[in-house]
Amino acid sequence: MSKKTLIILTALLFLFAFAAFAAETVTIINRTGYTIYYLKVSPGTADDWGDDWLGDDVLMDGDYISLDLTDRGFGKYCVFDIKAIDEDDDSYIQWDVDLCDRSKVILSMDDYVPPDDDDDDSGSGYETDCGYDQDVTISNDTGYNIWYVYISSSDSDSWGDDRLGDEVIMDGDVFDFCMPGYGSNCTFDIKIVDSDDDTYIKMGVDLCSTDYLSFTLDDLSVE
């Protein structure tokens, strides 16, 4: 056997051994009893939790999601910390999970972390009772989950940015929106978009005289 062949075989054996001790995918099952809105998986050596892995999705109670760790560049690690945040902004954490030894993680109430014990204050950014005249609570009574909400002044020529961000308003739930910076302007147009990409619109709403709006199928719009 030549020296060159021996070097190649040694390199291949190293790569195979490395692959055998590297995490590739993990399936996370939600058995907390609540809907998970944020999911963060980071190497145990990391200083922070990193980005949310769910994006615009939610993980319903009883559902599961499979995550590709190599796609995020984490394929060389084995030990991970896993954190989930539910609809009530409560956290569930599992520390030092060896994903080279297992590929399935079940989140349950056993993983619940009281707020005083959770040192991550990033939260969801959800705010209520901001004290502005135009603050509004939107109730989702459409029968579908709401993924996007746009609120713009009626004299504006665009809808502006989505105000939900990573949040989802589940059917039957409400969400409070803070509306700073509008001074004495009271008249707004409001558009919401559901999980089927259907649109519901209310035009010319006086948010200085009402702080609660219910969206139903009667608001369904054909654009």
List the helices and strands and how they pair.
Layout: H1 3-20, E1 25-31, E2 36-43, E3 64-68, E4 79-86, E5 91-98, E6 104-108, E7 112-113, E8 136-140, E9 146-153, E10 174-177, E11 187-194, E12 199-206, E13 212-215, E14 220-221
Parallel strand pairs: 1-6, 8-13
Antiparallel strand pairs: 1-3, 2-4, 4-5, 5-7, 8-10, 9-11, 11-12, 12-14
Could you give a quick summary of the protein structure above?
This protein is mainly β and 223 residues long.
Characterize the structure shown.
The structure is a single chain. This protein is mainly β and 223 residues long. The protein has 2 domains: 3-117, Immunoglobulin-like (Sandwich), CATH 2.60.40; 136-221, Immunoglobulin-like. The chain is 8% helix and 37% strand. The chain has 1 helix and 14 strands; from the N terminus they run αββββββββββββββ. The protein has one helix at 3-20, and strands at residues 25-31, 36-43, 64-68, 79-86, 91-98, 104-108, 112-113, 136-140, 146-153, 174-177, 187-194, 199-206, 212-215, 220-221. The strands form 4 sheets. The protein has a 4-stranded antiparallel beta sheet, with no helix packed on it. A 4-stranded antiparallel beta sheet has the order 9-11-12-14, with no helix packed on it. A 3-stranded mixed beta sheet has the order 3-1-6, with no helix packed on it. β11 (187-194) and β12 form a beta hairpin. The longest helix has 18 residues, at 3-20. The chain is elongated. The model is unreliable at 3-21 and 120-128 (pLDDT under 50).
